[in-house]
Amino acid sequence: QREELSVFQQYDILTGAADFPVDVKEEILQRENYKCENDPTHKTFIDANGKPYMETAPIVPFSVGAQFGQTIFQAENGACLCPICRAKMRSRGYDLKTFQKTSESAARKRY
Hints:
about 110 residues, mainly alpha, two-stranded antiparallel sheet, 5 helices
């Protein structure tokens, strides 16, 4: 049985403001050892915590994944991307051809 989304989560999804909880973001980043899943050779700057700056992104977009309830916000749905790859994903939308490598790699690791 899946846990339903709260009204606030539903609103965030509708407005494009949905994001992983802070603890889940950290779990995703640590799981990938702060390396870009699209291309682990991508370099980035060091953040205030002394770690390479990386961003998290949902593999199944929050906007289409609401049917999965709370599981959409779990680490298994998250990818660790460098800022450039994350920006490409945002600017192109969820272009699965561009990020097929990331999603296939992520799916193999998680499922």
